[in-house]
């Protein structure tokens, strides 16, 4: 039986009678039209990426070799001076960058570690809850959807000398644990407090990732473990945790990236204080770029940004290698 | 059968044609939308004024808005030009707002900025217009001589601008990029009268030692709310508003200026420098809890709310306290008391231009904007503004100034009175190393007081190292 489609195929692939006035066969013409429309469809994205992505990346990279304040008509080319000044050479700029690098390192160690340490058990417990799981999941997700400037301000009030944390400690008879200068006012507690606030904001997404992983584990695997005599703890440690290792890798990578580049929490809550004890590299780059009152430090900011980018790439590669070796 | 097939394939071909047309239309729309988005990103802003025809003016002082709006209403009546006033706070947000608006062509016509630094930086960057030909002698004569050169690139400022790292790099000698708008000074102490009375203090302290004793008394009366507030989250406040006037009083002009020099026998790590730091350290036990986490406005608010008995600020602080519900009659306001045993036991605090007006280089109505700037400098307009904002205008108000500005501001005017040698003049910066940044020095000082992380001796050493680093960079 000849269907309309086969007839059409025959007609299209058939002879000279179906050629277009220009001489091109209809199929080739259709392919060309589709190709053109395809190119046109991706053109906006390509143009946008060229302008917003490639151009700005190239511009920023070039800027890292210059002194400029963003407004003067000319750049002063300085070669690799900006990199050298930030890393060791300039006695004004290098010491704060080195101090900020150390603070950033602490943040990069503890934020991923604590986020995983909190979110994995939370996800396991939430996965075992049979009632109100949706409600509980929403509650635990609240920190993520509410994170922002307003929440950081709220945290500042909570952490003040007369704030809720000190009040709670006093009410519970733990007055000796109160922080008289406020939790952000004491250099010994300020960075640790900020890390806790960042972890509080990062746990929901990490927990959700673990939860999706937990729900995708084949129940027969868990049953087999139980039949082999593994208890709750053993199942989680020896079966579930290894199975979710790729998700742990993703969580660690996401938190490392956030710890390396993120600065809004620090900007809003301490502005790097007290006395620069909570300054981090992202905040230092932001200050050099926008808060130097038109001093020509945009190039320094750009150089610092590129150094952070290189570190992020290296970390991503290490993470990828570790994941591949484990999976 | 073939007819059917032909007909069917024609229909499909038509459909394909329609589909192709629709697809191309969709592509065209998507492309147009993305290009329009790019165009939007590319700026094309109005550059002030806008289509409404009204002038636009931005300020970073919320306390100035009411006074400026009142002046704008009068200006509209007299000149027929409407002026729209907007405030963006705090200072950092204002600075970034101007920079981003300059990039997108959305600057207002007139801006109130910090004097003698920010204004000339905007001039060097092409954001602020050049005003030499506009600001004539009659206009300048309205200002006290001490602030007439504010906004003007004299030989000293031009020399400072020659440094590659200077924000003023690129200004031309003899150019004027702003006119002064308000004057005042730092190092003004505010004290809560009621709290002082409760602690048995009947009058403001007259010397540094009395000040420390009074602090001790209010703190002993109420350890939680009887301390000293200062927005040390902005670390340069401690050194600029408190340590430097104290150093000037203790060491006199030459000794004070030597603190920032290269001579280790006279700079911060010297016995003189350590003596100043030890005196400053005397207030350490009496800071308001957590003052190092507060910005300037937050510290002012804390004082207005009764969370501190003392506050260090500037002449401009009085207006902010008023906005936060504290009446001028509720406070003592006086210049930082000097060291009775120092070289300048009773120092005056030199007035300087604190804020200035700049004209946007992209203003669509430069003539009207200049008229508005000139209008604000007229004595009767300045007097009205002063009353409405509780701030000191740059324009001289004549012999009646005390009665015009009210008793609280008049007492602040008294702190300006002194001999040249007996006056701490914060405008003088020529002895600082090129590119010197107060915030870095301030952070070192905060580490000593209130944080108690380092001793005065260690602080002196660190300040010397910092100063030397700026000297080294300048070479």
UniProtKB/TrEMBL annotation, chain A:
Topology relative to the membrane: Multi-pass membrane protein
Family annotation (CDD domains): TM_PBP2 (cd06261)
All residue ranges annotated as the ABC transmembrane type-1 domain in the record: 101-319
Localization (cell): Cell membrane
Keywords, comma-separated and alphabetical: Cell membrane, Membrane, Sugar transport, Transmembrane, Transmembrane helix, Transport
Gene Ontology biological process terms from the UniProt entry: transmembrane transport
Record has Transmembrane as a keyword: yes
Family: Belongs to the binding-protein-dependent transport system permease family.
Name of this protein: ABC-type sugar transport system permease subunit
Organism: Nonomuraea endophytica
């Amino acid at each position: 039986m000849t269907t309309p489609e086969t007839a059409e195929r025959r007609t299209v692939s058939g002879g000279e009678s179906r050629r277009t006035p220009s001489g091109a066969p209809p199929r080739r013409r259709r392919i060309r039209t589709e190709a053109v429309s395809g190119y046109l469809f991706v053109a906006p994205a390509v143009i946008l990426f060229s302008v917003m992505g490639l151009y700005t990346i190239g511009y920023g990279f070039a800027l890292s070799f210059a002194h400029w304040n963003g407004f003067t008509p000319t750049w002063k080319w300085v070669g690799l001076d900006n990199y050298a000044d930030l890393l060791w050479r300039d006695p004004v700029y290098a010491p704060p960058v080195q101090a900020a690098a150390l603070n950033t390192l602490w943040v990069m160690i503890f934020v991923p570690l604590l986020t995983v340490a909190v979110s994995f058990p939370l996800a396991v417990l939430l996965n075992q809850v049979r009632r109100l799981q949706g409600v509980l999941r929403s509650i635990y997700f609240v920190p993520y959807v509410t994170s922002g400037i307003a929440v950081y301000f709220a945290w500042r009030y909570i952490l003040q000398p007369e704030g809720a944390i000190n009040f709670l400690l006093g009410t519970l008879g733990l007055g000796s644990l109160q922080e008289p200068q406020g939790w952000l006012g004491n250099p010994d507690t300020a960075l640790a407090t900020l890390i806790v606030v960042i972890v509080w904001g990062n746990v929901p997404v990490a927990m959700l990732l673990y939860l999706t992983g937990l729900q995708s584990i084949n129940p027969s695997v868990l049953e087999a473990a139980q039949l082999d005599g593994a208890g709750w703890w053993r199942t989680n440690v020896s079966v579930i945790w290894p199975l979710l290792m790729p998700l742990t890798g993703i969580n660690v990578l996401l938190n490392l990236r956030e710890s390396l580049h993120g600065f809004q929490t620090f900007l809003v809550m301490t502005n790097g204080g007290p006395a620069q004890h909570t300054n981090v590299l992202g905040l230092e780059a932001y200050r050099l770029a926008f808060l130097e009152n038109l001093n020509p430090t945009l190039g320094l900011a750009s150089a610092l940004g590129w150094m952070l980018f290189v570190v992020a790439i290296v970390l991503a590669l290490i993470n990828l290698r570790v994941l591949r070796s484990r999976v | 059968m073939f007819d059917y097939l032909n007909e069917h394939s024609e229909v499909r071909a038509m459909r394909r044609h329609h589909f192709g047309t629709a697809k191309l239309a969709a592509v065209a729309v998507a492309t147009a939308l993305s290009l329009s988005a790019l165009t939007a990103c590319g700026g094309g802003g109005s550059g002030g004024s806008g289509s409404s025809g009204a002038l636009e003016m931005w300020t970073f002082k919320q306390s100035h808005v009411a006074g400026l709006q009142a002046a704008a209403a009068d200006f509209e009546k007299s000149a027929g030009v409407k002026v729209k006033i907007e405030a963006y706070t705090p200072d950092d947000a204002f600075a970034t707002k101007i920079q981003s608006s300059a990039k997108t062509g959305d600057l207002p016509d007139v801006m109130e900025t910090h004097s003698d630094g920010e204004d000339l930086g905007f001039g060097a960057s092409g954001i602020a217009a050049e005003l030499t030909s506009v600001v004539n002698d009659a206009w300048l004569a309205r200002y006290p001589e001490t602030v007439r050169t504010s906004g003007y690139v004299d030989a000293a400022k031009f020399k400072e601008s020659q440094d590659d790292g200077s924000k003023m790099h690129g200004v031309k000698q003899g150019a004027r990029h702003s006119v002064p708008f308000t004057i005042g000074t730092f190092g003004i102490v505010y004290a809560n009268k009621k709290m002082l009375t409760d602690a048995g203090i009947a009058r403001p302290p007259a010397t540094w030692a009395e000040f420390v004793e009074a602090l001790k008394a209010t703190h002993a009366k109420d350890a939680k709310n009887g301390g000293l507030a200062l927005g040390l989250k902005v670390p340069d406040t401690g050194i600029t508003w408190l340590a430097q006037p104290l150093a000037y009083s203790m060491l006199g002009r030459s000794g004070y200026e030597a603190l920032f020099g290269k001579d280790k026998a006279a700079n911060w790590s010297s016995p003189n420098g350590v003596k100043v730091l030890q005196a400053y350290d005397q207030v350490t036990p009496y800071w308001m809890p957590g003052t190092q986490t507060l910005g300037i406005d937050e510290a002012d608010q804390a004082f207005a709310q009764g969370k501190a008995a003392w506050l260090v600020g500037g002449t401009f602080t009085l207006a902010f306290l008023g906005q936060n519900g504290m009446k001028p009659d509720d406070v003592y306001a006086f210049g930082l008391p000097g060291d009775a045993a120092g070289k300048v036991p009773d120092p005056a605090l030199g007035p300087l231009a604190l804020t200035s007006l700049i004209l946007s280089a992209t203003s669509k109505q430069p003539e009207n904007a200049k008229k508005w700037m000139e209008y604000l400098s007229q004595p009767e307009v300045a007097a009205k503004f002063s009353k409405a904002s509780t701030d000191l205008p740059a324009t001289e108000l004549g012999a009646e100034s005390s009665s015009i500005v009210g008793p609280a501001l008049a007492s602040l005017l008294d702190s300006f009175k002194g001999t040249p040698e007996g006056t701490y003049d914060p405008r003088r910066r020529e002895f600082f190393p090129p590119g010197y940044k107060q915030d870095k020095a301030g952070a070192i000082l905060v580490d000593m007081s209130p944080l108690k992380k380092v001793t005065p001796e260690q602080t002196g050493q660190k300040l010397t190292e910092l100063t030397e680093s700026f000297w080294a960079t300048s070479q």
